[in-house]
Write the structure tokens for this entry.
Amino acid sequence: MELEMIIMNIINYSGEARSLCMEGISYAKKGDINAARINIEKANEKIGCAHKSQTKLIQLEAQGEKQKFSLLLVHAQDHLMNAITTRDMALEFIDLYELVYNSSMVKGDRVNA
């Protein structure tokens, strides 16, 4: 696979993962914790695909096939790191919303999202 295609795969999968994470937070905010966690699972799959593409580049370089500097590759790496960070934070938000909703149910309070 040529370099540009690998880079675009990283950008595409990472962007999809980030969007799924943000949507997951939105679901959790509305109280739909199950849908939120499903989105995170989908995001994990996309991050896994991006990571596989990244690994191809690393393996090529480890085998001596050096790549020229590419601003697009730096951009792709930024997208992947951002997606991973967003996923990690989304998991924390989902856990927090779950706690809020569960404690509200116990107290009999109504939570407005």
Helices lie at 3-29, 33-62, 71-107. The chain has a mean pLDDT of 92. The radius of gyration is 18 Å. The domain at 3-107 is CATH 1.20.58.80 (Methane Monooxygenase Hydroxylase; Chain G, domain 1).
